[in-house]
Every structure is written in C-alpha cells, then in structure tokens.
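Could you join me in thinking about how sequence relates to backbone shape in a protein? Would you write everything just below, so we can both look at the same thing?
***
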Amino acid sequence: MLPDYPKLKADIGGLLKAYFRKRVSDLMPGSNEIPRHMIYEGRHDAISRQGEEVEQTALHAAEAKMVLTTEDLITGNAQALFDQIHRAAEDMARQQFEMLLTTVEQSCNSVGNVINNAGKPFTPDTLLEGLRMVDIPFSADGTPQLPTFFMPPNEQIRRAQQQAMSDPEWQRRFHELIEEKRLKWRDSEAARVLAE
C-alpha cells in the first residue's frame, strides 16, 4: 500500500485555495475593502438601515470549475494546474463582480440614489452629484473617507476627472460639499447613543 500523506495534501490544498482567493481578489480591484462574513445557513441576507424596513438580499451561488487530466497530475505539470486556477479565478471574479453590481444597483434603485444622465455626457458636475447622494464618514483627524466609484474605462469619464482636477471653481464646490458632509457627519456622531 502506498503512503497517502494526508497532512501534506491538506497543506498543498490550503496553499492552492489561498492562491485562488488572492487571484480572484487581484482581478476585482477594491474588493478587499468590502466587509465579508460567513452565512452558515438560510436563503438570504438582510440589511437593516436605521429607521427603515429590513431589506432582504437573496443569496446567489458563484462557482468555477477546474479540470486536470490524470496525465498532468502524474507528470507534475504545474503550469497546467496554474492555468486552470487562473481560468477558474477569472470566471469566479466575473461572476462575483456581476453579482456585486446587480446588488448595488438594486439597493440604489430602492432608495433613489441613482443618477440618470439620460444620454447626456458625463461631466465633472456628475461626480459632485454622485458625492452629494452618499454619506461620507471622516477619520479622527477629519480626513474624508471618500467612496470608491466603479466606472467603466471611458474617455469621457477620464476627461471629466481631468477637468475636475484642473478647474478651481469645481475644486471650490467640491471642498464646500466636503465641509457640508463633515458637519453632517459630526452632528450624526454627536447624536449617536453608545451601547452600555
């Protein structure tokens, strides 16, 4: 009987799973900033916002398949293994990103945090309008924790960002908006009731 080496197999399996997760994360910029939690049973997750009804979010499966031939395993073809991991990670990242965008879109539509330009060009003012719609927290030193916007790579968006950064009037309105958000955040923090 040949030795089985269960600990070695478990260690190698753990390393490959960690590599797969890292690859998926690398393919989804910004995903490391999203809090994660395990759901051990049930059919949905729920979001409870202060003063609002509980919003239930259905769970969706994301899966990726890897196929290795016996020949690859026998010959120790590591490149075939990593090629399969990369293809599976790309598939998993695509599914997760599509689910993320769908969930965010549904949530934004349900509370009215949507900007519909109705075919008009994306401008620096569109950026300000987006920032106006969201709550912005601040760190202890008063630095705003600006949100991450997911936008397609688009020449019009890139130009709008460049215009915003070079326009003193836009910069002034941006800083005024941030100051309004800072005061609102400070007031909401001061009104918080801490748990005893």
Notes: The CA atoms of residues 60 and 99 lie 8 Å apart. Residues 124-190 form one domain. DSSP finds six helices and two strands in the chain.
